[in-house]
Specification:
Length: 627
């Protein structure tokens, strides 16, 4: 459209110049013909359409205020930590409303998930609807592309149904404006995407067949199918899908040193596994699905900075951290920079990054779950506590302060606190994950780097969960212990395995990889549908899910900020049970004037609703029917 606008302007200028110009200049000449009917006619064209899905998937992790932060702070593991302004999601019942700002790096990214989810569904549906318009060399080629499109659509509907519950189900390319969408029952959406993923797992090519790093492969389809089967309470199906990955002869847990630092005896396998240059290595057989971001990649969005050090690391470079002598203790400026007229000689920012404490780990994550002193994931060099850092402000050196170069302390000799903002500036973090070199920035935020989307360690934990639900505690313990053994942690006994210990292990192993809120809500819905008793001794029902659910109980059990209503400068931290399902953005409901999209219980507008439609299996896509 921009190209045609330019042509129109040029045409107008030629007319104003008078009859001296040939009439040939008046004929618009489009510069390209990337219309659907010209592009989606072969394998290359349809596969190019799926690149938009890959790009959108990657955006969950990259950039400032990444959406993954929202998944993490709506859980048991973290809270929003930027205490210097209004807007960040802290008082959830008051702030998380359908007509609030739901798509801002400075507020939350709930609305991004809704909007981006349906964007990716749109791209996938375009390929699905046009699959037989294209020319194909073989059925295998056709079904590989169709399976990848099914994967992208299924992945978004899995996420949307665990984030928002019942949502509209769109199964075809939309070629004209529509204002008549209706909510579809969550469980029937899951049944539909299970069918699609079963097809995808059969036809999508594997990494062993040469699928490039960063593209969808057979193992990714089975990994997602395991999650969907869990959500449907199909535990045998979840085990079967996980087995298809674990036993495929290609993937295995990485237990031996490898990659860029393999010869460094001060490091270990946990460090190796998470260094960005190691994630795409051919020898890394734990990788299933990888987001790729590198400086040399030029397509849209492929060279984004992950910015994780800015998001996750504490704001240690502020004036909030004092020495026991009462002086400002730290600086986040690089070596040689002038601070107060003095040069920095102890550089901590290059090593740790310039954090702002946006995704603030709570004690459950940074302390409580680390009960094994031998666990590599919390070992010196891999994990950083504030006491590992040193007072480096150059004024301390020039003034002869005895604390210069000594380790941080939270309390002075008299018990007085030395950090005036412990929410934002004092907590531990997993350095082995958060360190991403950022040589283009003097105060590094986290540069270009690949990131795991799916990894075999999670496949083991999904299978462990399925075994637990089936009552096969020893098999569940064996799978959890495979992860713990790699991390040099002591094994669990079968009697110790429950959803709580599985969630604890996911917190240790999958920090900033798993969408934590999505997975806890999935478990909450499973408990409500099954009626099984949770480890806390409670049972739940779908009939009062918005008032009483496992997501809320888990968050209140583990996240003391929400449980204890910790007071921040602008808000008091609070949660509420209905936030287990996020509000549908009011803009989506209000624009849908010829249909009905239901609002979730607990939010304004929930009283205006229609019984959700249901997807019924049949030939092709099946059909949506009213109930």
């Amino acid at each position: 459209m921009k190209k045609y606008s330019i042509i129109s302007i040029v045409t107008l200028l030629m007319l104003l110049m008078g009859p001296g110009c040939s009439e040939d200049y008046l004929t618009p000449k489009p510069l390209s013909f990337y219309a659907p009917e010209n592009t989606f006619i072969n394998e290359a064209g349809l596969n190019a359409a799926l690149v938009a899905c890959l790009r959108g998937s990657r955006h969950e992790l990259y950039g400032d205020g990444a959406p993954m932060i929202t998944e993490t702070i709506f859980s048991d593991m973290a809270v929003e930590g930027t205490t210097d302004k209004t807007g960040p999601a802290m008082d959830l019942p008051a702030q998380i409303l359908p007509d609030a700002n739901l798509n801002s790096a400075n507020f939350n990214r709930i609305g991004w998930y809704w909007k981006e989810g349906y964007y990716r569904i749109k791209y996938a549906n375009t390929v699905i609807s046009r699959i037989d318009v294209a020319d194909w060399a073989s059925d295998a080629d056709r079904n590989n592309i169709l399976g990848k499109a099914y994967f992208h659509r299924a992945r978004m509907y899995y996420r949307l149904t665990q984030q928002f519950g019942d949502v509209p189900l769109i199964l075809e390319e939309i070629t004209s404006p529509r204002l008549d969408f209706y909510t579809t029952e969550r469980k029937s959406i899951l049944q539909k995407i299970k069918k699609d993923l079963t097809f995808a797992a059969q036809w999508v090519k594997s990494e062993a067949d040469g699928v490039p790093v960063g593209d969808i492969n057979k193992a990714a389809c089975n990994h997602l199918l395991a999650k969907v089967n869990l959500a449907l309470l199909d535990f045998d199906g979840a085990i079967s899908a996980a087995n298809a990955v674990i036993n495929d002869g290609y993937h295995h847990l990485m237990t031996e040193r490898f990659g860029m630092d393999a010869g460094d005896e001060t490091k270990n396998i946990t460090w190796d596994l998470h260094q960005v240059k190691n994630k795409a290595l051919a020898e890394n057989r734990e990788r299933i699905y990888l987001y790729t971001s590198r400086e040399e990649l030029t397509e849209d969005g492929a060279s984004e900075r992950i910015s994780i050090m800015r998001q996750v690391v504490p704001f240690y470079g502020s004036n909030k951290i004092k020495t026991p002598s009462g002086q400002i203790g730290s600086s986040d400026k690089p070596l040689g920079s002038k601070v107060g007229g003095q040069a920095v000689e102890i550089d901590q920012v290059t090593k740790y990054g310039r954090g702002i404490g946006r995704c603030r780990s709570v004690p459950y994550h940074h302390t409580v779950i680390w009960t094994d002193p031998n666990d590599y994931r919390h070992a010196e060099g891999n994990w950083v506590d504030m006491e590992d850092m040193v007072y480096n402000h150059p004024i301390l050196r020039s003034s002869g302060d005895e604390w210069y170069g000594k380790n941080f302390r939270l309390f002075d000799e008299g018990g007085g606190i030395l950090c005036t903002d412990t929410i934002r500036s004092w907590y531990g973090w997993p350095q082995y994950k958060t360190y991403v070199a950022d040589p283009t920035d003097l105060t590094p935020d986290g540069g270009n780097g690949d990131w795991y989307a799916y990894r075999l360690a999670e496949t083991y934990l999904l299978r462990a969960e399925a075994y637990f639900w089936k009552g096969q505690a020893q098999q569940a313990a064996d799978d959890v212990n495979a992860i713990r053994a790699r991390a040099n942690a002591a094994p669990y006994s079968a009697g110790e395995i429950n959803l709580g210990t599985i969630l604890d292990e996911r917190a240790r192993e999958l920090y900033y990889e798993e969408p934590r809120k999505t997975e806890i809500t999935r478990m909450a819905l499973m408990l409500a549908e099954s009626g099984k008793t949770a480890y806390n001794g409670k049972t739940y029902q779908m009939s009062n899910f918005s008032d009483n659910n496992f997501w809320y109980d888990r968050v209140m059990e583990k996240n003391e900020y929400y449980r204890d209503n910790v007071v921040a400068p602008h808000y008091t931290y609070r949660a509420a049970p209905w936030i287990a399902l996020w509000p549908v953005p009011a803009s989506a409901i209000n624009a849908n004037t010829l249909g009905v999209i239901n609002q979730n219980a607990g939010y304004p507008g929930a009283e205006i609703r229609r019984t959700p439609q249901k997807w019924v299996d049949g030939e092709g896509e099946g059909e949506l029917v009213d109930q």
